[in-house]
Amino acid sequence: MIVFWHLLLAHLLADFTLHTDYIYQKKISNPFKGLTIHGLVYLVCLVICCLPYLEINWFTIAGISFNGVETIFLLTLIHILSDFIDISDNHDVIGINALMFLCWQIIEIAVLFIVAPFIPVPETKLATWILKFIIILNGLIISSHLLMVLIHLSIKDFVHKNYPTFDERYVSMIYRTGLYMSLVLPSDFAFITALIWIICLFIIFQIKQVNFMSAKNITGTIITIFIAFGVRWLIYHVY
Distance between CA 206 and CA 71 in Å, rounded? Predict the structure, then answer.
């Protein structure tokens, strides 16, 4: 599972944090160029995140073994192909955008899980802390960026509204980011910090004239709390 967390971070960084509007627009207007740029970003993220494990054997199929370098090139090609096939990427499949987005993410992450080699839990404190930090980053990107995309694709499907204004979108992302980071802090201090954060952001929502009690914000809050508790379980009880 250790290498899987590294792979997941690379995937989330390339597919969300570093998936800029420029890349998104190019994937629509010039698919070859857009997918090539996105593929290169994906490959670089894989190399950086999995650097300590590139020389070991990852998996064997039909008697052929693939090490880390060979596997990440294969994963990049698979990801480019999946993005080419995934017609929901342009968000125009009204009614099932969110479902298709979620299904493709599950498929792509499942591929990462399948090819990731089994590595024993690290014995040194430094390696353990690095692994915990990577798991925290995974949860952070999921609760902020991935969840933002999923929520607003759902709104587009069922309410037929486009993405909200810049302020509403990023105030909501900042709110979930702070809530998530508060909840992964150690001990009861986490819950006190989370409560203070909610109160502070409630005020900012009012200033920005964004409905704090909207269904999408309540849904985002609940899912973020579940993600944070899952990460807490991993970093405090599993690793």
Answer: 49
